[in-house]
Design brief:
179 residues; mainly alpha; 0% strand
């Protein structure tokens, strides 16, 4: 499995999917900070002031990290930020589950009002529950895979060798390296 995750095309797909998901998740929150603040507050992790601070700053962090992943700039750093966010989300979700708090809309991706029970997504996919925890664990695995990927992927295939030896510097080591 590790060899598969290290392949350049798999890394590209993970990077683009994770980046697109975080960009998409940030847009509704940026457009509607009061609704996101309500969603954060219902998790009962902090009071109104921390909830408002999170509602104003978190979506922008998600947007920037997602855009960096999509652009391919600072990939490992952006993936590390996303991994840290996911760890915080997982700890908060564990706290909500352990305390038995019913969170109807986690505010993770969309702030839209809950639809009738027969509509998409199904009830087991909404709110804070085991689906959210599992999804975030899979996203965390993807982010950590990007963090652990080589800084530069090799340009040569696994069985290819350079055309010839690399040029060697020669000289007596004097001024300017001239013989």
């Amino acid at each position: 499995m590790t060899a598969l995750l290290a392949k350049p095309r798999v890394q590209l797909a993970l990077r683009l999917l994770l980046g697109a998901l975080f960009v998409y998740a940030s847009l509704d929150k940026i457009a509607n900070p009061p609704a996101f603040a309500k969603a954060v507050y219902q998790w009962q992790v902090g009071g109104p002031v921390p909830s408002n601070v999170v509602a104003v700053t978190l979506p922008w962090v998600e947007l920037v990290a997602g855009l960096l992943l999509l652009a391919g700039a600072w990939k490992r750093e952006a993936a590390l930020v996303i991994a840290l966010l996911l760890v915080v989300f997982l700890v908060a979700a564990g706290s909500v589950l352990a305390r038995g708090i019913d969170v109807e809309n986690c505010g993770c991706v969309s702030l839209a009002a809950n639809a009738p029970p027969s509509a998409w997504p199904p009830a087991w996919m909404r709110g804070v529950g085991w689906f959210l925890v599992t999804r975030n664990l899979l996203l965390l695995a993807a982010a950590l895979s990007i963090v652990r990927s080589p800084a530069r992927l090799p340009l040569l295939g696994a069985n290819e060798q350079p055309a010839g030896p690399l040029p060697q510097a020669t000289g007596s080591g004097g001024a300017g390296g001239l013989p």
